Amino acid sequence: MRNDGLDPHEFLIGTNREHAEHRQMMKAMMEQQKKGGHAHDMATMEAHQSGVSVQPGKTAAFVWTFARTQALEFACDIPGHYEDGMHGVISFDR
User: Fold this and answer.
1) Distance in angstroms (rounded) separating the CA atoms of residues 4 and 10
2) pTM to 2 decimals?
């Protein structure tokens, strides 16, 4: 993944429910960070889904093995990004 933008982004793969849970966690973490708490890290992200966090001007890679093929989507779960359309369904040709 390459982030040519000015904001950090995530590229995560998971179910709709996993993304919803992760967005709630991200929102809470960002509220804590505003109060001097800790920042989001890959270990926390990997506990929820698989993916990468990519800072502006940087690249990142990850490998995903499709062991399950139902109801998966990709998304950026940083608050506001999913709502702005940064998500999509992963479909499999049969």
Assistant:
1) 13
2) 0.77
Instruction: List the structure tokens of 85.
Output: 């359309």
Q: What is the CA radius of gyration of the chain?
A: 13
- 70 φ, ψ to 5°? -110, 140
Contacts of 8 (CB under 8 A, 6+ apart): 53, 54, 55, 56, 78
Assigned token pair, 5: 């933008």
- Distance (Å, rounded) from C-alpha 11 to C-alpha 13? 7
pLDDT of res. 37: 63
Supply the DSSP symbol for 91. -
Q: What is the DSSP letter of 77?
A: -
More confident residue, 68 or 15: 15
